[in-house]
Amino acid sequence: MPHLLRNYVLLGVLALTWGSGYPFIKVVVDTVPPATVSLARASFGFLVLFVFYLVKRERLPRNSGDWVWIGALALVGFVVPHILITWGAARIDSGLTAILVGSAAFFTILFTLIMDRAERPAIHHFAAIALGFSGIVVLVGPNALAGLGGQIWGQLSVVGGAACYGITYPIARRLGHLSPAVSGVAILFCASVVALPISLAVDRPWLLEPSALEFGGLVWLGVVSSGLGAVLFLRLVALTGPNFATVVNYLVPRSEEHTS
């Protein structure tokens, strides 16, 4: 398969993988709080990738520098944005949430310029991002922008989550020399370790009583959206760089509980 076609196929599959989780998010969000959703996603994703990791018999990274980037990606790519965006989206209009989350692509360019001098965005990158962002505004309706300035903490929370998504792309580039399965299992393990005490302290998950459908939704979010999604995301960034990969932000369907 030609490289360009392969990259676009990966981009499309990643968008479908992340987007497939939104119906399940709507199922679980009323019963399961954000920190516990984040924990479930990371934990179920880790368990599946760990089995895959054992089958392939690959080695976890031994370089302490790699673990620093893995920990950073677990924190800002999974735990923090899941909590920030879900919390903020509950307080502002869903259309405005979609627009604000779309700013992740702009943050990607900003952090890439700061962190990776070798990866300079070209004019077509800016054009694609501007076109994609404009498309979001058109699809959700320009009237959604009328909410700007109200519920400021909710808006700042969503933008903070989008900024976290933006910085994950240049961070993921630092792990391009590792197998996506290896870096994925390490990232989701770290995300589980970080999310566990937050969930225990804030949500008291032992008191929750999710239905079979809600539990199944958590499993899907962990296995498919987080587990498989992490492998595809890391592979795409390693092959194409952050500026191309960030276009996925405009292909994934939007909802008031956007998480990746």
Structure commentary:
With 260 residues, this protein is mostly helical. It is 73% helix and 0% strand. It contains eleven helices and no strands. Helix 3 packs across helix 10 and helix 6 packs across helix 8 (152-173). The protein is globular. The model is unreliable at 255-260 (pLDDT under 50).
Short account of what is shown:
The chain contains 11 helices and no strands. With 260 residues, the chain is an all-alpha fold.
- Characterize the main sheet: none
Give the mean pLDDT: 79
| C-alpha end-to-end distance | 27 Å
- In one word, what is the shape? globular
Q: What percent of residues adopt helix (DSSP H or I)?
A: over 70%
From the alpha-carbon coordinates, what is the Rg to the nearest angstrom? Answer: 18 Å
Number of strands: 0
Low-confidence stretches: 255-260
Which structural class do the helices and strands define?
mainly alpha
- Give, in order, the helices and strands: HHHHHHHHHHH
Q: Into which percentage range does the β-strand content fall?
A: under 5%
- Helices, by number, come to 11
Structural topology:
Blueprint: H1 3-19, H2 22-28, H3 34-56, H4 64-89, H5 94-101, H6 104-115, H7 123-140, H8 152-173, H9 180-202, H10 212-240, H11 242-245
Helix pairs in contact: 1-10, 2-10, 3-4, 3-9, 3-10, 4-8, 4-9, 5-7, 5-8, 6-8, 9-10
